[in-house]
Amino acid sequence: MTAQTRTRRWPWAASALSLLGAFTLAMVSPADSVQGDLVRIMYVHVPAAWLAYLAFAVTFVGSIAYLVARRLSWDRIAAASAEIGVYFTGLTIALGMIWGKSTWGVWWTWDARLTLTAIMFFVYLGYLALRRTTDDPIARANRAAVLGIVGAVQIPLVHFSVVWWRGLHQPPSIIRPDGPAIQDSMMLVALFVGVVAFTVVYVSLMVKRIELMHLDDRLDAAERAGDQPVAGEAVTAPNLGGSA
Amino acid sequence: MSHWGWVALAYGVTYGSLAAFAASIAIRIRKTRTTLGENQ
Amino acid sequence: MTSGFWHQVRAVADRDLLRERRRGDVLWITIPFGAIALLLVPLAVGTDAALLREIGPGLYWVIVMLFGVLVAVGKASSDTVPQQDASLLLGLDPAAGFVGRAAAATLLLLIFEVVVGVVAVGLYDISIIGVPWLILTVLIVAAGLALLGTLTGSIVNSTSAGTALVPLLVAPLSVPLLLGATQAYEGLRLGHSILSWVLLMVAVVLVVAIIGVLTARPLQES
Amino acid sequence: MTATPLVALSGVGVRIGSTQILRDVDLQIGAGEVLGLFGPNGAGKTTMLRLIATLIRPAQGEGTVLGADLASSDRYDVRRRIGMIGHVPGIYPELTLGENLRYAARVAQVPTKRARESLAAVGLSGAADRKAGASSHGMQRRTEFARELMIDRSLLLLDEPHSALDQDAVDLVEGLIERKAAGGGSVVIVSHDRARVKAIAHRTVELDGGTLS
């Protein structure tokens, strides 16, 4: 039997603590001269976007490592990170829309980074959809690994195309929708702590999500334990009973 | 809506969704553990 | 990359093209599907000529991206397990299989682009300008989309969701091609240089081709 | 059989998804041997053939086929010397019988004129231009036999070879099997037709519950 998977307590505690710290800093840092308090949205929006790309980078590395080392533990890391990445991408898009509506009165500003994030959201949603369609763990790991690589390698290409495209349609504006200039060191600290806090949250989610995967595998194995009949045994000699 | 209204919405969405995501994992962990017949 | 490799590539490409010619899926299903999409839009957005001339090119490329990829996932280009087994035991290198299927899909996509293009020019009064560059764009988009469709087709290879998943996987990844093609045409119209956009599209083709060849064997495993 | 075995499996297990199809299979097949493999439905006979054909990687244990380790990439190099005729014909219904064979010849890189010769050898030269999809199951199987005649194989894996074949096609098959064994290759026949297979096989094994007995 595989080693007992200990339930780990520290992730939730660490996440709560670091988020609390980030929240207080975000609240006490000075308002922006132009944006006013709206700038505080940035302290969650930017970290969320940063974590989305970190998560997809981990999926990229995990996918390559699986194809090389052929160990399912890499596949688990890639899959967990993709799932968390899709969550953070969704959060980034939601926050981007809140920012857009509050700052520009429009939910979707077609700003380069937001558009790019939306595209990545669908690429990795496809990754999760692909994983759901295959049940053989080895086949699923193989296919997901290739898509994990294709998805990541495409990011620079998608990035350039969107940024160039955005460059053509850049409406003249005082503040580029991508974000205001950082005016005060306190703001920088708040932003930095926000990113650190979100990274702690990412690591905690990864640890717990992989713990869940181990448990699911052990549940799967338990069902298939020694007494699990070979598929063939389900077929028995036909017994036609009182046939004519 | 006032600036603080938007900020509250943004943080509400952030922490609310984080809590929901974390909870969904924690619940599934507990459920799988019980079916495996282990205590926490 | 021995001569045997390219020999097998041609054998696979000829096989898929012959199967498509016999089935006629592209000619009778996928192309009409693209054409009808072009017909429906003006009914929805209004038939003002200036508007249609404005959105025509962009719309054409969106339809090529969304429906063109169906060419690469049709019955003619997906093998059953026994067919794959037989080809493998003939000594078919999975990478040659990938390149061969992508080559056949590229040709079919070219046909799709040309026929649907004629319909678009007719319905939207799109002016055909900068012809050498335009042909190059059409060729690169055909290759890029065919490679993307073939690669995702082998990734999805006989899973339960099957080929329905391919357009979802391809659509976001086709953004560089879509922007490249639309901005290339835009650049031609305004007389700007479109080299950067063409190079971007060529980069997509190279990246997907390399990944497809390198992952052909692991994908064949599943 | 002192010669090194063409196929050597030890402790091999195969799992597809969460179902265990084969478990600790030990099997040796020597050169020139015709082996009969019997077993009830679903015992994993077809999986066993695809395993020997190097198309499945073993989940447990290890094995070599024609000298290539089943888990390593050299199995790609020996595949061309393995012929398999499965339950479901691996040919393309849209193509004619002749086109299917020409495709096979081009991939295996043998002269395409052999396609015509082998079609004639199996008595199908008249049907060369008939679409495979429009041909009977028996004709499709004969086309697969023609493919095996066209390419020199060291190992022949036949799944229910006698099914859907008329008498002279059966003679043809058994002729092919004898010629292959005499030539130093080996043949594995999976079948329910014990009487017929026992007549031509040197050895038979029973596959039941995923293990050989």
Order of helices and strands of chain C: HHHHHHHHHH
Enumerate how many helices of chain C there are, as a single number.
10
Number of domains of chain C: 1
Judged by helices, strands and strand pairing, the structural class of chain A is mainly alpha
* Cα-based radius of gyration of chain A, to the nearest Å: 24 Å
Helix and strand run of chain A: HHHHHH
Low-confidence stretches of chain C: none
Oligomer: heterotetramer
Largest sheet of chain A: none
Percent strand of chain C: under 5%
Major beta sheet summary of chain C: none
Alpha carbon gap, first and last residue of chain A: 51 Å
Helix content of chain C: over 70%
The chain-level structural class of chain C is: mainly alpha
Which outline of chain C best applies? globular
Estimate percent helicity of chain A. Answer: over 70%
What best-fitting shape of chain A do the alpha-carbon axes yield? elongated
If you average the pLDDT of chain A, what whole number results?
83
Report low-confidence residues of chain A grouped into runs of 5 or more.
171-177
Q: Hey, roughly how much beta strand do the residues of chain A contain? A: under 5%
Word description of this protein:
Chain A has helices at residues 10-28, 42-69, 72-104, 112-133, 137-168, 185-223. Chain A is built from 6 helices and no strands. Chain A is elongated and about 85 Å long. Chain A is mainly α and 244 residues long. Chain B is rod-shaped, with a radius of gyration of 16 Å. Chain B is built from 1 helix and no strands. The model of chain B has no long low-confidence stretch (mean pLDDT 88). By secondary structure, chain C is mainly α. Chain C has one domain (3-221). Helix content of chain D is 33%, strand content 26%. Chain D is built from 7 helices and 10 strands. Chain D has helices at residues 45-52, 75-78, 97-108, 113-121, 137-150, 167-182, 194-200; strands at 7-16, 19-29, 34-38, 60-65, 68-69, 82-85, 155-159, 186-190, 203-208, 211-212. In chain D, helix 4 (113-121) crosses helix 5. The longest helix of chain D has 16 residues, at 167-182. Chain D starts with 6 loop residues before the first strand and ends with a strand. The model of chain D has no long low-confidence stretch (mean pLDDT 87). Chain A binds chain C through residues 67, 119-120, 122-123, 125-126, 129-130, 132-136, 138-140, 142-143, 145-147, 149-151, 153-154, 157-158, 160-162, 164-165, 168, and chain C through 151-152, 155-157, 159-162, 165, 168-169, 171-173, 175-176, 179-180, 183, 186, 196-197, 200, 203-204, 207-208, 211, 215, 218-219, 221-222.
